[in-house]
Q: What sequence folds into this?
């Protein structure tokens, strides 16, 4: 066969990963804001003797580092999108960035608990008014950062109806986000939470003399941060480990392929290869087998399958299997 004759059967494996994601610019903006506020909080914490402020500043410093990882993941995924060494493109770099951010969050939660217990045992004197003022500014900065990163978090719901394809589409909206942006968003929420708890602790310390509230709030904050971290570890690791797509997606594909009574799905693998996009590997057995393209045309559009490999077998003698890749 002439080499150019293969072009019709060959395709790019970029899957849109070379496009600049909205989360990339947002993340870089938030890194700059966070880094500036972090310096202010650390300097103020040392100057005013506030462990709460110093801890909040260090918390922001750790998150600036985590956000920098997220930004690097975006840039790497975009620049290496056309690299053929990546079997299914660079979509999973996003999940890897999210996973790394989640692990860092868990480490910071442990550090917050350690620091809080230390402060329970050895309370320190605090210049309350100045510390409260800086903590309030920190909270405002975190609020602005969360708004910048909000992105896809406002449609975190299902659009599913009774149609299985619609159900699949809804499932995608529920389960498959930009894990990198989600990690960055949770880091900013965790920062806002620690700022809020620091303000509460400083106010009660100032007006009621309760020295224990500052470290107690640190422990509560750490527990909430750890919970967010675990949720993100589960979501991003399932992508990294090629976990099968949700059951509703698999059922919709089976129903679409087997709709004539003549065809059965013998083997089905469908996994996420990037934010909201899937690859599918499908083996079909039929009494009167059609071409692989015939079965690929049946795949529901709502599933957002960008790469499909279909293997076709005849039911009677299983000879002459046809294989095609899209």
A:
């Amino acid at each position: 066969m002439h080499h150019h004759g293969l072009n019709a059967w060959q395709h790019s494996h970029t899957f849109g990963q070379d496009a600049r994601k909205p989360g990339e610019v947002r993340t870089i903006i938030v890194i700059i804001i966070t880094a500036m506020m972090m310096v202010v909080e650390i300097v103020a914490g040392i100057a005013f003797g506030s462990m709460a402020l110093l801890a909040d500043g260090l918390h922001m410093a750790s998150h600036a580092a985590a956000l920098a990882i997220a930004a690097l993941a975006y840039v790497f995924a975009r620049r290496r999108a056309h690299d053929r060494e990546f079997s299914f493109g660079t979509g999973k770099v996003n999940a890897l960035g999210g996973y790394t951010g989640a692990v860092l969050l868990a480490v910071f939660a442990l550090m917050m608990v350690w620091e809080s217990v230390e402060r329970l045992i050895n309370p320190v004197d605090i210049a309350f008014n100045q510390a409260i003022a800086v903590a309030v500014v920190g909270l405002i900065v975190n609020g602005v950062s969360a708004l910048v990163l909000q992105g896809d978090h406002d449609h975190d719901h299902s659009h599913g109806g009774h149609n299985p394809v619609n159900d699949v589409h809804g499932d995608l909206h529920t389960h498959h986000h930009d894990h990198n942006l989600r990690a960055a968003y949770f880091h900013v929420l965790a920062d806002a939470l620690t700022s809020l708890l620091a303000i509460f602790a400083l106010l009660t310390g100032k007006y009621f003399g309760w020295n224990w509230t500052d470290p107690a709030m640190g422990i509560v904050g750490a527990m909430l941060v750890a919970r967010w971290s675990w949720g993100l570890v589960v979501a991003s690791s399932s992508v990294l480990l090629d976990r099968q797509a949700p059951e509703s997606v698999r059922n919709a594909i089976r129903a679409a392929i087997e709709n004539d009574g003549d065809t059965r799905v013998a083997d089905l693998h469908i996994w996420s290869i990037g934010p909201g996009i899937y690859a599918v590997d499908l083996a079909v057995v039929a009494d009167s087998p059609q071409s692989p393209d015939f079965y690929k045309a049946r795949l529901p559009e709502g599933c957002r399958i960008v790469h499909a490999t279909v293997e076709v077998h005849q039911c009677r003698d299983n000879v002459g299997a046809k294989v095609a890749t899209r």
Residues 152-176 have pLDDT under 50 and may be disordered. The chain has nine helices and four strands. Strands lie at 263-274, 277-286, 305-314, 322-325. The two ends are 19 Å apart (CA to CA).
